[in-house]
Amino acid sequence: MKTYMLKKGEVQNDWHVVDADGLVLGRLASKIAQIIRGKHKPTFTPHMDGGDFVVVINAEKVRLTGRKMEQKQYFRHTGYIGNEKFTPVAKMLETHPERVIEKAVFGMLPKGTLGRQVLRKKLKVYAGPRHPHEAQRPAPLLLS
Question: I want to staple 138 with a disulfide (CB 3.0 to 4.6 A). Which of 17, 51, 90, 100 is the partner?
């Protein structure tokens, strides 16, 4: 028996749409990371991009458990000495709710060029219920 390796011409990408209304952020992000990476397919190949496209709608209505709304903060550094910036997740959900889901999914992908490429190409996040990907006919993905 030989291990099957997916070839570039054999890659088939499907489109899925996920409604994030009322879903827990971490559980949603782990499922999305598996789908855009391609781990849910029997043809998964670690060194290739064989995953599906995921469109997330209603990102502003995602739910966080526990006291994360008060305690969780996002960190960034400006590059200058002592200029660390901390943004609370509540403020990030008000201003840029797409980034909350993108950052959660990015943390669950492999660090490197393939992880960045998969995130940039395969994940589409929108704050409201409308998205411009109707032409691709995405299948609804039920996560509970």
Answer: 17
Q: How does residue 139 score in pLDDT terms, banded at 50, 70 and 90?
A: very high
List of residues 6+ apart from 111 with CB closer than 8 A: none
For the entire predicted model, the pTM comes to: 0.93
| 86-100 mean pLDDT | 97
Identify which of 136, 143, 144, 125 has the alpha carbon closest to the alpha carbon of residue 14.
Answer: 136
Residue 3 in tokens:
């291990």
pLDDT > 90? residue 61: yes
Domains of the chain: 11-64+95-140 (3.90.1180.10)
pLDDT given for residue 1 in this prediction: 81
